[in-house]
Amino acid sequence: xxxxxxxxxxxxxxxxxxxxxxxxxxxxxxxxxxxxxxxxxxxxxxxxxxxxxxxxxxxxxxxxxxxxxxxxxxxxxxxxxxxxxxxxxxxxxxxxxxxxxxxxxxxxxxxxxxxxxxxxxxxxxxxxxxxxxxxxxxxxxxxxxxxxxxxxxxxxxxxxxxxxxxxxxxxxxxxxxxxxxxxxxxxxxxxxxxxxxxxxxxxxxxxxxxxxxxxxxxxxxxxxxxxxxxxxxxxxxxxxxxxxxxxxxxxxxxxxxxxxxxxxxxxxxxxxxxxxxxxxxxxxxxxxxxxxx
Amino acid sequence: xxxxxxxxxxxxxxxxxxxxxxxxxxxxxxxxxxxxxxxxxxxxxxxxxxxxxxxxxxxxxxxxxxxxxxxxxxxxxxxxxxxxxxxxxxxxxxxxxxxxxxxxxxxxxxxxxxxxxxxxxxxxxxxxxxxxxxxxxxxxxxxxxxxxxxxxxxxxxxxxxxxxxxxxxxxxxxxxxxxxxxxxxxxxxxxxxxxxxxxxxxxxxxxxxxxxxxxxxxxxxxxxxxxxxxxxxxxxxxxxxxxxxxxxxxxxxxxxxxxxxxxxxxxxxxxxxxxxxxxxxxxxxxxxxxxxxxxxxxxxxxxxxxxxxxxxxxxxxxxxxxxxxxxxxxxxxxxxxxxxxxxxxxxxxxxxxxxxxxxxxxxxxxxxxxxxxxxxxxxxxxxxxxxxxxxxxxxxxxxxxxxxxxxxxxxxxxxxxxxxxxxxxxxxxxxxxxxxx
Lengths: 293, 437
Description:
Distance between the termini of chain B: 51 Å
Low-confidence stretches of chain B: 8-43
Largest sheet of chain A: none
Strand content of chain A: under 5%
Oligomer: heterodimer
Order of helices and strands of chain A: HHHHHHHHHHHHHH
Mean pLDDT of chain B: 85
Radius of gyration of chain B: 25 Å
Shape of chain B: globular
Helix content of chain B: 40-55%
Number of helices of chain B: 18
Largest sheet of chain B: 5 strands, mixed
Structural class of chain B: alpha/beta
Distance between the termini of chain A: 28 Å
Strand order of the largest sheet of chain B: 2-1-3-13-6
Structural class of chain A: mainly alpha
């Protein structure tokens, strides 16, 4: 018995080894290496000096960094919206309506499309003379053109919308997998007790989807705080600092201005923030009366 | 039992990682090579030791392969023992490549960079001070304004190479519709604004689009930094007036209310949403492809000057990284590439402008066959004596540019208060100047 377990665990480790090795080199190692780097003025091209906690004190006095943290936190508002809509979409595509497979595929297409392509398409749609302005002017919602991505009051929310639009299909698929794991007899029993469609969702579907909701919310929070691609491609953090998110600012400080030591310190601060948010999500999810799995 | 095994595995992983960490900390060689200065006389290699120079350019292959292969062959034959390896990278990739090569201890010897990036690296001490290697005659062979753009604290960190100055492109159809005469183009910024206003009133089209970048200050004679480059100097009533005027022009619709990157500017001009375009001659290639009809109606004239009465050049430079293992040969090769003869030849094949004074006397830069390309070339080459890179000797140019651009966006796009924003940006720029990192 013991031998069997040992050989089984050996096989498991063997299967995981390639992936773990990859993670160790490209994820764990940079994270660990970031800690000593954050205490230096490392810039690759010049001599490195130990600066102690200077980078961290500088970070909390750095007006732009604080703005970028705030913008990243605002970005997290996308999380509940994305979860609610993707659960509803999953429930819809889980039904037996004819042509439902086409909808599943259609919702999933943005997920597999490259973010660069998505960003470029949206930049055309949202341009001054883009389709969005044209339609809104036609139906009379707007009285004049809006530069969606160049106006501080709209740019961040437009980016959040694009992030949401691209991510919906991904979370929908995860929830769909969860839905298909819910035994049909639970619904039957609830129906026998007189539950309508809304009650079924509230009392059967959502409680049984809890592990999925927890997982999706955690990765979605992490994704929102670390959002980079769409922001960098479409606005580079502008206009001004309206859409400057922490990842974009870290990128600019490190890879554009060669302050790798400082950028590492900023990265660590953001990592701690993401970890704290993730813990918070776990905590919030523990509350409530339904047993988790 | 399983818990113990798990614990053991985790501990083992941690030990492995920590040992990797310590190994990497120990193996970080950051001692910059300190070359012995000398002149760039035509020498071979020391004691006949063969030397391989790694020469990097930005986006010149395969278009100019013939020119460079010939040039390199010529150099190698006159410098026995020196071999040049030419590599070319896209514009976006060169900084990353330079960082990774430097980090791995394999620095290139001669690198093509733009002025902003060269200043940024120069102020971080990553580039060789070329003043120690160049003769007076060599240093004076370049246009002063362009050569001085990468001089920091009296040290020249780059040799100017090919350059471009902006010209004014005009959509004659729209200009004529507005009742203006393209044959008498505007000479000053004020006149250009008046023209743009009239175009906007008569045709509904905006005057021009522009990117909100720091060069808007020097165009109007507002210095970005003080004389000795130790503090910000742009927070002045003149700057407030310049920005307020820009804000009003955007509100009127005379200038497009947008921070328009070059690609956006191409779209606006191609789509006849603006009548003017202020940019270098390369703009023609894009218009020719994207809007042939607009191209037919476009003329190029000398760029109207602002209050400073100067025109800005946008130069490419050659630098020698501090960590080059062959500094003397590298400087010599960079001087060879940028000498008057070779710059003239390159301008002819690449349709760029030279930064060497002697080149500009060639008929190629004074005679026009009437085509838009030739008009733009002649118009821009006439500006070279007034040309200066706007980031003249600005340390950490990239950081300062970003700060100024963000400030301009805050005011012009987000409606922030001019004075408050200028105060904040001034503080930020002074912080950048006071930081070593």
